[in-house]
Write a structure and sequence with these properties.
Order of helices and strands: HHEEEEEHH
Structural class: alpha+beta
Shape: elongated
Strand order of the largest sheet: 1-2-3-4-5
Number of helices: 4
Helix content: 40-55%
């Protein structure tokens, strides 16, 4: 009876039999992912993390300084910072797009971050060619609300349920299964034909021997 099945019937049967296994595999994969995420998040308590950070930063020391000056582009930046244990002090300044000199002095440590910002207007007369112009490249004129809506649509469309994921997997592998089943059916038919021909040849040989 099984030899009377068509390739499409066999394909449907194979897909049906595969679906529970794929569903189980996907569910297990999702559980493993959630388990790994949960484990990595809960590996350290806040108290342990704070204690380890304090130990690692107790003897940390460094200092650096750099300056950038480009008269052609009118880009002027400088920054220096020093660290001793858990305390950091530094300052930086730059010329903004309006030509103002912005200077920031800051401190950071266990108690948090504080800064003092000063702005000296008109420090540099910005050349017309260096004044930033509106963006004219890709997505020029597209509002942020449109981009957000597009992003939300992409995000919602990318979140698939397990059943949707299984359906996509089955659709993806359907051609391969169909091709494999057709090959199997063809091989089986050829094998059956060969066996039948061999049987016929054997019967004819026996009949010839008896006649002789």
């Amino acid at each position: 009876a099984s030899s009377g099945l068509s390739a499409s019937q066999l394909t449907s049967s194979v897909v049906t039999s595969l679906q529970p296994a794929i569903a189980s595999a996907v569910a297990q994969a999702l559980r493993n992912t959630q388990s790994r995420t949960s484990t990595s998040v809960s590996a350290l308590s806040p108290e342990e993390e704070e204690r380890i950070n304090a130990q690692q930063s107790a003897n940390a020391q460094y200092n650096y300084e750099y300056k950038v000056g480009d008269d052609d582009k009118q880009t002027y930046i400088s920054h220096k910072e020093a660290r001793d244990g858990q305390n950091v002090e530094g300052s930086y300044n730059y010329i903004d797009a309006t030509g103002s000199l912005v200077t920031v002095n800051y401190q950071a440590g266990p108690m948090g971050y504080t800064e003092n910002r000063e702005v000296q207007e008109g420090a540099v007369q910005i050349d017309q060619r260096n004044i930033p112009q509106p963006w004219s490249g890709p997505l020029a004129g597209v509002s942020s609300s449109t981009s957000s809506a597009s992003g939300s649509s992409s995000s919602s469309s990318s979140s698939l349920s397990q059943s949707d994921l299984i359906a996509q997997i089955l659709r993806a592998i359907q051609p391969q299964i169909s091709s494999a089943v057709q090959s199997a059916v063809g091989s089986r038919n050829r094998a059956s034909t060969s066996s039948f021909n061999a049987g016929v040849s054997s019967g004819l040989s026996s009949a010839n021997v008896q006649t002789a």
